[in-house]
């Protein structure tokens, strides 16, 4: 059995080497490019949906190097301060959930904005699909989740070189109320409802005809992202719920190894949500591809400098101009 456990643990560790490290690299690059394109394109500046997607890219750029990289160091290289230090454990748990939930909230807001922007009532569109409301929602989302997950700071401890949540009412609320709502039911219900509402609104052909090409491209960018969020977030939420339900069960080394491997797989699947966003945008939006090509040409295409001889070899042309003088040009008064 020991050889089987070793083999399973080796597979779990190599998942971090072969998949997690390339994924985090592609995710960080994609998040940074998303921010550069959205901020550099004037046509994106006044669109609330783009503002939500930009906020999601910023949160992804924070989450991947600060949170997911810590998990890779622990599981792949057996390095990690948060398993041996209480302060690091509290910081890791708190930031993990705040950044993760905020990052998956912004695509839900984007789906809501698509529903609001296609609503038939002008007052509804003006109130709920605006840059002002989008800024308020982005800031309010961070504040809301920061307050909701603040109790994790007080119940996180490093016990036997493992960062855990201490038993009690706060852990029960986190494990059996927040986790099912945030990671399982919430995204599925919100995304399905807003997507259905958007499709129903677009059935009014008179309103749909007024949507320009950029708006349609943005909708094509949002829909695949929210579908991936709803599907890929489900295994991660179920696995977190299973870990909480079986936290007090005595487990043999083989079961621990298998559960650890499943945890690594579900975490990889879940982080596809963060990594794939930019590449979905690039594939679905022609406007994104145009901006990307312009950026590549601007920063990577070598500038052509003509040698000085090319100017000397060019024939010199002299233009003759006729000087016009008035009839009194040569008169002098004494």
Automatic annotation (TrEMBL):
It is a multi-pass membrane protein. GO terms for molecular function: G protein-coupled receptor activity. Residues 30-281 form the G-protein coupled receptors family 1 profile domain. The chain crosses the membrane at residues 14-39, 51-74, 94-112, 133-155, 175-199, 220-238, 268-286. It comes from the Eukaryota. The lineage of its organism: Eukaryota, Metazoa, Spiralia, Gnathifera, Rotifera. The keyword ATP-binding does not apply. PROSITE patterns: G_PROTEIN_RECEP_F1_2 (PS50262). Keywords: G-protein coupled receptor, Membrane, Receptor, Transducer, Transmembrane, Transmembrane helix. This is G-protein coupled receptors family 1 profile domain-containing protein. InterPro entries: GPCR_Rhodpsn_7TM. It is found in: Membrane. One of its GO terms (cellular component) is plasma membrane.
């Amino acid at each position: 059995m020991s050889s089987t456990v070793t083999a399973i643990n080796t597979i779990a560790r190599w998942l971090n080497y072969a998949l997690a490290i390339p994924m985090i690299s592609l995710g960080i690059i994609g998040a940074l490019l998303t921010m550069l394109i959205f901020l550099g394109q004037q046509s994106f500046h006044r669109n609330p949906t783009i503002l939500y997607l930009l906020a999601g890219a910023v949160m992804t750029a924070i989450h991947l190097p600060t949170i997911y990289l810590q998990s890779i160091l622990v599981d792949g290289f057996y390095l990690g301060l948060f398993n041996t230090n209480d302060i690091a454990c509290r910081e890791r748990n708190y930031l993990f959930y705040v950044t993760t939930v905020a990052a998956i909230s912004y695509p839900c807001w984007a789906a809501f904005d698509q529903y609001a922007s296609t609503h038939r009532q002008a007052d509804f569109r003006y109130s709920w699909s605006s840059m002002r409301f989008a800024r308020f929602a982005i800031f309010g989302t961070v504040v809301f989740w920061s307050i909701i997950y603040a109790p994790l700071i007080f119940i996180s401890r490093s016990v036997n070189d493992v960062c855990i949540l201490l038993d009690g009412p706060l852990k029960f609320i986190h494990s059996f109320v927040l986790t099912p709502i945030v990671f399982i039911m919430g995204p599925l219900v919100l995304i399905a409802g807003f997507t259905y509402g958007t499709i129903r609104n677009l059935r009014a052909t008179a309103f749909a005809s007024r949507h320009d090409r950029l708006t349609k491209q943005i909708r094509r960018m949002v829909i695949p992202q929210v579908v991936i969020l709803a599907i890929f977030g489900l295994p991660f939420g179920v696995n977190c719920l299973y870990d909480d339900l079986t936290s007090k069960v005595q487990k043999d080394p083989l079961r621990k190894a298998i559960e650890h491997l499943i945890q690594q797989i579900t975490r990889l699947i879940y982080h596809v949500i963060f990594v794939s966003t930019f590449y979905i945008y690039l594939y679905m939006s022609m406007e994104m591809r145009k901006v990307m090509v312009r950026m590549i040409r601007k920063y990577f295409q070598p500038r052509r400098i003509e040698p000085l001889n090319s100017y000397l070899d060019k024939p010199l042309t002299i233009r003759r101009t006729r000087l016009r003088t008035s009839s009194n040009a040569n008169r002098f008064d004494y």
